[in-house]
Design a protein that fits this description.
By secondary structure, the chain is an alpha/beta fold. About 35% of the residues lie in helices and about 20% in strands. The chain has helices at about 15-25, 45-55, 100-105, 115-120, 135-145, 160-175, 195-210, 235-245, 255-260, and strands at about 30-35, 60-65, 85-90, 95, 130-135, 155-160, 180-190, 215-220, 245-250. It is globular, with a radius of gyration of 19 Å.
Length: about 280
């Protein structure tokens, strides 16, 4: 995968330690990947788990923001400080139960874009943020920023009719209410399923014929495969493609202040692989 390593501009010597730390972290960027929740396909956990494993293999720390209908709501402490709701699951994966969180950030225009800055401030040590939410919430969160970039959401389904129905409904919402006319697809199905290919083909055709949306790439994953298995090369390629199109957000002063506040630990490396 191509590494984003822009050369920093020459800077004058820092006047004090705080200024030096600000210069050190000035180029830190979080990358946000929208993952469309599908209540008709009980494989959201598998999809998020596989993505985390892929990004861990790249040496990246991933925060999963789970705002799907099946997720837990915010903890009481996280109501006041999002960072208090972030649970470390491993050295390279963190989790935030966030059902209902996007609408708490809705402004007068219905945009929930301020949530992105709140997440960046709460988890400045992360490299990738997977935002798992309904299609309508993802449009509210990413819509304004996505109009000026190449952000591509990830849609998933299983190989049954209800999952396909929900996936198509999500693509319809994103194409009609948001700026997204392209997406990637994961089909969660047994390797010997006779329906997986047909489901992917049907969704791609309907999205193109009725919505003008493009199913850019699709891949089948086995939901019963042990989590200890390394992601396949094909899956790593898809995950890397999502990062290439992810929404970049540079850490601001609020995130810096959180990093150097008492009790906070500075990251173990100066900058992630993608910075």
């Amino acid at each position: 995968m191509t590494s984003f390593s822009p050369q920093p501009l020459a800077a004058s010597p820092p006047a004090d330690q705080a200024q030096g730390l600000r210069q050190m972290f000035a180029s830190r960027v979080l990358r946000f990947v929208p993952v469309v929740a599908n209540p008709g396909a009980a494989c959201g956990g598998v999809v998020l788990e596989r993505l985390c494993a892929a990004y861990a293999s790249f040496g990246l720390h991933t925060l999963v923001v789970d705002a799907g209908d099946q997720a837990r709501g915010l903890s009481e402490l996280a109501e006041f400080d999002l960072s208090e709701g972030i649970e470390p699951l491993s050295k390279q994966v963190s989790y935030l139960a966030a059902r209902g969180l996007p609408l708490r950030h809705a402004d007068a225009r219905g945009s929930c874009g301020s949530l992105l800055h709140a997440l960046a401030d709460a988890a400045p040590q992360c490299d990738v943020v997977l935002v798992h939410a309904s299609a309508s919430e993802l449009v509210r969160i990413f819509g304004e920023r996505a109009r000026h970039g190449n952000l591509r959401p990830l849609v998933f389904t299983n190989d049954v009719a209800e999952g396909l129905k929900q996936a198509y409904a999500a693509v319809k919402i994103m194409s009609q209410r948001g700026p997204w006319l392209a997406y990637d697809l994961l089909v969660c199905a047994h390797p010997h399923s006779d329906q997986a290919d047909a489901v992917a083909e049907r969704l791609g055709q309907c999205a193109d014929n009725f919505l003008g949306a493009a199913q850019r790439d699709w891949l089948r994953i086995n939901p019963h495969e042990p989590s200890s298995h390394d992601p396949s090369p094909r899956f790593l390629e898809l995950a890397a493609g999502l990062l290439q199109c992810a929404l970049p957000l540079t850490l601001g002063d609020a995130a810096f202040d959180h990093l150097v506040s008492p009790g906070s630990a500075l990251p173990s490396r100066m900058a992630p692989v993608l910075n």
